[in-house]
Structure formats: C-alpha cells, structure tokens
Specification:
Pfam family, one: DNA_pol3_finger
Distance between the termini: 49 Å
Helix content: 25-40%
Protein name: DNA polymerase III alpha subunit finger domain-containing protein
GO molecular function, one term: 3'-5' exonuclease activity
Strand content: under 5%
CATH topology of one domain: DNA polymerase, domain 1
Structural class: mainly alpha
Shape: extended
CATH architecture of one domain: Orthogonal Bundle
CATH class of one domain: Mainly Alpha
Number of helices: 4
C-alpha cells in the first residue's frame, strides 16, 4: 500500500483493519522512544525485571496510595503527591493522582477502568469487583 494515491512514491505503508479484533487486543500505551528505555533502565538500575510483576499481588495496589508500602516513612516523607504514581506514564498528572486517591484501586480491573475514565473513553463496567 502506498502512503498516498501516487503509486510512484517509494514510501510504502500498511494498514490493517483491527476493529474486528478489539475484544482480543490488549493496548499498551507505551511511547516507543521512552517507556522501553525506562523499563530497561529499571532492570539495569535495580536488577528487577518488570516481567516478574504479579498483577494479583495486593501489595502492588496497596503501594499506589500507602507510602509506607513503598518504603517512604511518614515523618521523613517530602513526597507531596496524593498517590505514588509519579513515574507511571498516564497516571502522573495532578488530576490522575487525585482521582486515584479517591478511587482507591484494589485490582487491575480498577486501574483499567480508571484509565478509560481518565481518557474519556468507553469502558465496560459490567464486572463485579466486590
């Protein structure tokens, strides 16, 4: 497929209709120039491989709001934000951190629903999360 209607151009492009696959797709909002580098640096700096994160671990979600879970002591804490998401892409604005502190996410579904809400997209809320 050509970039324009001009078949003489050398630039090629491809496009695939994906809407029929939407229910099976997982969208990762990773900026190609920064997030992969940050994940590599996380592993290089800490020795922790992000692939080892277990999303059913409640400590993961507790750490979003509870500073002690991530090792920040209350009296020594100079971290002025309502949630511990400063380094998490798309969850580090004043609006999203305040909303997370009100939402109090307990699982991955809560975070996915929040992400859709904060982007003003339609997110199905049919799952019972009690």
């Amino acid at each position: 497929m050509y970039v324009s209607d001009d078949g003489k151009k050398k630039e090629l492009s491809s496009f695939t209709e994906y809407h029929f696959l939407e229910n099976q797709l997982i969208k990762l909002d990773m900026l190609g120039h920064s997030d992969p580098t940050m994940l590599k640096e996380l592993k290089d700096f800490t020795g922790f491989d992000f692939k080892n994160i277990r999303f059913n671990n409640t400590v993961l979600y507790d750490g979003i709001l509870n500073k002690e879970v991530i090792g920040l002591k209350e009296k020594e804490d100079l971290y002025p934000f309502p949630s511990n998401t400063m380094g998490i892409s798309e969850m580090n604005s004043d609006f999203t951190m305040k909303t997370l502190s009100e939402l109090k996410p307990k699982n991955m579904f809560d975070l996915i629903a929040f992400s859709g809400y904060s982007h003003k997209n339609t997110v199905p809320f049919s799952r019972n999360t009690n």
